[in-house]
């Protein structure tokens, strides 16, 4: 599956506007995602990919592209 | 001492969106109470309610706010914002209220059970990982207060009051006292409630105050003071008022819609627990103190907006209280209650009554009591029934509110021009002043 497309679908379901998101979009500064919403995103990723996601690992990511890369790396291994 | 004026009203209720919809429904003499369709009510004793069906949260609020809040917060945010718009006010910026001088006071009873029930179900059915991370902040009764402050940029005093059906009255009274203490120039005060979920409805049922006899004819179910009264009907909704320090409103050229001229809070303290005084003496004392604080007498009162819960023992106690407090004028002051038009809105009930009082004064009309066909024996007050009654020159309205366990809260709403002298002070109970300002006390008759 295409990781980016699936992640965009997750974000759309979580009420983000996909038109406002590209790889360089910053999670905190541009999308104003706080720790609670990050926990919601972590669970949504777990439900779409065969992964266990630790919220604290997501907290270290800066951009949407970083999240795509994080999932792709974990997915491949 | 300054005065507390009303400069904006916002409402989202079973009557529709906006304070005018609430007023028109009150005038209509018809109830919009209906059979519940938010869940299957068949296994409950009371199967009817007031539903704010025209309010769709996503029409008003961004999806990312809707997903993290219960409906009772969504109702509140929209009602508060429309109240602020009605007042022609903004927070911060040029011409706005300074954020630290703006406050929020909210009355609520049940919190956000619609959201919480779903998450509890997921907790037990699927485990903790499936519980929404927003559960804690979505359910708790102070969620509307927090979200209103965040969205509007309010940095001043914010409180939530939980006092059963008197919650909204407490919010309004405390907002007024906050302004009189010099702690705010403006407070958005009101209430919000969303009881239409299976568990919240069960809480209402076990409270034993809902009518079980209205299911076959929902519009006729809520019958305040009528000999067919058998309990209350509740509804969802939110009503907020903008209360403002008089000088602040005057200096910005605000349209002053009324004044919160007096209030009094007390408690029956009556045993057995969770009952109220059958003779209404303590409520009568609250009525008297609120009139006194407003600087008026019973003869000056143009109308009473009664609590009118339609719980028989409460209706009786309220009639006795009003008869006692109004004395020789008891038979001449028109009495209405408008909750039957759309349901008892619990935390929003008193703010809705105050909104109706403001309109009644503005229009010189007292709306009728819906479903009051035959007053119960001995209920000999001058109830307004059938059609609205013209009340030219209506200036002062008493709003009565009460909560489980014997809480009594009375408010006096006066017309915008009822006391046009800004220096006029109120007789009666004064808020204790800090020692530094004690020397500036003004005394006089405000009537």
**CA gyration radius of chain B, whole angstroms:** 21 Å
Strand elements of chain B, count: 16
The stretches of 5 or more residues of chain B where confidence is low (pLDDT under 50) are 420-447
Structural classification of chain A: mainly alpha
Overall outline of chain A = globular
Distance between the termini of chain A: 15 Å
Taken in chain order, the helices and strands of chain A follow as: HHHH
User: What does the average pLDDT of chain B come to?
Assistant: 92
Tally of alpha and pi helices of chain A: 4
Shape of chain B: globular
- Please give the share of residues in helix of chain B: 25-40%
Query: Helix count of chain B?
Result: 13
Name its key features.
heterodimer, A: 77 residues, mainly alpha, 4 helices, B: 447 residues, alpha/beta, 12-stranded mixed beta sheet, two-stranded antiparallel ribbon, 30% helix, 18% strand, globular, disordered C terminus
Structural overview:
The complex is a heterodimer of chains A (77) and B (447). With 77 residues, chain A is an all-alpha fold. Chain A has four helices and no strands. In chain A, helix 1 packs across helix 2. Chain A starts with a helix and ends with a helix. With 447 residues, chain B is α/β, with parallel strands linked by helices. In chain B, the strands form three sheets. In chain B, strands 1, 2, 5, 6, 7, 8, 9, 10, 11, 13, 15 and 16 form a twelve-stranded mixed beta sheet that branches. Chain B has a two-stranded antiparallel ribbon with strand order 3-4. In chain B, helix 4 (71-86) crosses helix 7 and helix 11 crosses helix 12. The longest helix of chain B is centred in the N-terminal third of the chain and has 16 residues, at 71-86. The two termini of chain B are 15 Å apart. In chain B, 58% of the residues are buried. Chains A and B meet through helix 2 of A and helix 3 of B.
């Amino acid at each position: 599956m295409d990781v980016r497309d699936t992640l965009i679908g997750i974000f759309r379901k979580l009420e983000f506007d996909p038109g406002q998101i590209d790889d360089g979009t910053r999670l905190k500064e541009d999308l104003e995602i706080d720790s609670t919403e990050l926990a919601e995103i972590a669970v949504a990723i777990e439900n779409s990919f065969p992964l266990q996601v630790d919220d604290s690992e997501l907290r270290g990511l800066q951009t949407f592209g970083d999240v795509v890369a994080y999932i792709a790396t974990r997915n491949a291994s | 001492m300054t005065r507390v004026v009303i400069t904006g009203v916002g409402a989202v209720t079973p009557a529709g969106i906006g304070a005018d919809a609430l007023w028109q429904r009150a005038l209509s003499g018809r109830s919009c109470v209906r059979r519940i369709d938010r869940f299957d009510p068949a296994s409950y004793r009371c199967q009817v309610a007031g539903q704010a069906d025209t309010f769709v949260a996503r029409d008003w609020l961004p999806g990312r706010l809707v997903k993290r809040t219960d409906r009772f917060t969504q109702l509140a945010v929209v009602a508060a914002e429309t109240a602020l718009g009605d007042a022609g006010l903004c927070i911060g910026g040029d011409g706005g209220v300074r954020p630290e001088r703006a406050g929020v006071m909210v009355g609520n009873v049940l919190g956000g059970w619609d959201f919480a029930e779903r998450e509890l179900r997921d907790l037990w059915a699927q485990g903790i990982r499936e519980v929404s991370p927003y559960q804690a902040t979505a359910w708790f009764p102070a969620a509307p207060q927090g979200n209103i402050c965040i969205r509007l940029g309010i940095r001043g005093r914010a409180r939530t009051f939980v006092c059963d059906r008197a919650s909204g009255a407490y919010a309004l009274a405390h907002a007024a006292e906050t302004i009189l203490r010099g702690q705010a120039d403006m407070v958005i005060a009101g209430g919000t409630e969303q009881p239409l979920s299976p568990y919240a409805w069960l809480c209402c049922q076990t409270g034993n105050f809902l009518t079980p006899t209205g299911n076959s004819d929902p519009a006729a179910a809520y019958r305040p003071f009528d000999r067919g009264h058998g309990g209350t009907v509740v509804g969802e909704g939110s009503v907020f008022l903008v209360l403002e320090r008089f000088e602040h409103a005057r200096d910005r050229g605000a349209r002053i819609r009324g004044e919160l001229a007096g209030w009094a809070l007390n408690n029956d303290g009556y045993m057995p627990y969770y009952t109220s005084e059958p003779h209404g003496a303590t409520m009568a004392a609250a009525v008297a103190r609120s009139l006194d604080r407003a600087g008026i007498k019973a003869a000056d009162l143009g109308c009473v907006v009664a609590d009118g819960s339609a719980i028989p023992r409460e209706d009786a106690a309220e009639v006795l209280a009003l008869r006692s407090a109004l004395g020789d004028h008891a038979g001449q002051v028109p009495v209405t209650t408008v909750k039957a038009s759309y349901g008892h809105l619990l935390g929003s009930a008193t703010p809705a009554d105050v909104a109706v009082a403001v309109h009644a004064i503005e229009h010189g009309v007292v709306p009728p009591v819906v479903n009051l066909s035959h007053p119960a024996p001995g209920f000999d007050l001058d109830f307004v029934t059938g059609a609205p009654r013209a009340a030219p020159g209506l200036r002062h309205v008493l709003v009565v509110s009460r909560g489980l366990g014997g809480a009594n809260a009375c408010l006096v709403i006066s017309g915008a021009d009822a006391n046009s002298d800004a220096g006029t002070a109120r007789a009666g109970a004064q808020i204790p002043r800090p020692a530094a300002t004690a020397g500036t006390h003004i005394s006089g008759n405000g009537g």
